[in-house]
Amino acid sequence: MVNRESTGQATELDIFVKTTLKPLVKTSLVLQAFKKVDRGNFAPEEYREFAYKDEAIDLTRSSSISQPSVVAIMVDHLGLTGKERVLEIGTASGFCAAIISQCSSHVDTMEIDEDLARESSERLRNLGYTNISVHVGDGALGLPTEKPFDAIIVTASVKSIPSALLDQLADGGKIVIPVGEDSPTRSQLIEGKKEDGKMSFSKIADVSFYPLVSSQEGGWSIEEVSELFSLREGRMKMLKEMKNQPDLQQLLNNILKTLTEIAGRPITSADEANEFLKQNPQILEDLDKPKT
Q: β-pairing, 85-89 with 106-111?
């Protein structure tokens, strides 16, 4: 990456923040956070090229670094001023926690995957973040020992909002959380606010997140998401193979081009192709038929 201070030129990060995130963010505190936190430091080496694109980056079959625009919208809706104590559910790489740390006094972040939690804790420490605490645990239960929190952000889709999280929200506080209800991947991003002990909710946007797996209230069971995780794992393997075999990338491009022609609309990713084929299974049958 080009060093702006030594050259006077804008970096990839500067350009990305200005062109992609600035139109979405209302508060300067959040925008400045994205200028300070380099997403490239949180992306796996093999996916570093995607760090300054508005795309999610897979970490494991059940976790990813969320799309920057979605993170920006979520943090913006928390209404942080720099003084709040924040609970994050879903640490993943630590990127979102790092963003929040620039907008609050302290961040407690929870991750159910012990390996991810350990790696993120070490990464954040090495990068110099001193107001972030990483905890291993079930996100649906929250962190009752540290309550109340002025704000809670959940970066995994729940079936319903866990009451444990609402109990840990301070009066006057906000929670931003994706709720799937009928689907672990298709969610509504919900903002909730507690006033005089009562919650009110409003919809922010339609989003897609990895599911929050938990046996507790609000979580998805492993049985409900096992097929999804298998598909994600297969996609990750495919992408790694493509980096070493450019001909496979060309194959995917050809598939996407064909599906775009069939659908009459752009289909630009493996995820979109998979979803389109699941909704239209007859297409595979039609393609398999001999031409006459």
A: parallel
**Contact predicate 62/155, CB 8 Å:** no
Closest to 154 measured CA to CA, from 129, 124, 194, 188? 188
Rounded-to-integer distance, Cα 101 and Cα 97, Å: 6
Q: What's the CA gap between 255 and 242, in Å, rounded?
A: 14
Tokens of 166: 């609402």
The pair of structure tokens assigned to 74 is: 């979520």
Instruction: Kindly state the helix (H) or strand (E) to which residue 109 belongs, with its residue range.
Output: strand 106-111
Question: What are the structure tokens assigned to 73, written together?
Answer: 């919208």
Domains annotated on the chain, with CATH: 4-221 (3.40.50.150), 224-288 (no CATH)
The residues annotated as belonging to the active site are 66
- Cα(96)–Cα(122) distance, integer angstroms: 15
Q: How far apart are CA 283 and CA 262, in angstroms?
A: 9
User: Does 224 have pLDDT greater than 60?
Assistant: yes
Tell me the pLDDT band of 287, cut-offs 50, 70 and 90: very low
In order of 103, 117, 152, 193, the CA distances from 123 in angstroms are 19, 10, 22, 32
Length of the chain in residues, anyone? 292
Which whole-number Å values give the CA distances from 52 to 68, 79, 123, 253, in the listed order?
Answer: 9, 25, 19, 22
Q: Does the predicted TM-score (pTM) go above 0.85?
A: no
Task: Report the alpha-carbon angle 30-73-184, nearest 5.
Answer: 140
Residue 100: which of 137, 151, 59 has the closest Cα?
A: 151
Q: What percent of the chain stands above pLDDT 90?
A: 55
Query: What are the pLDDT digits (tens) for 116-139?
Result: 999 999 999 999 999 999 999 999
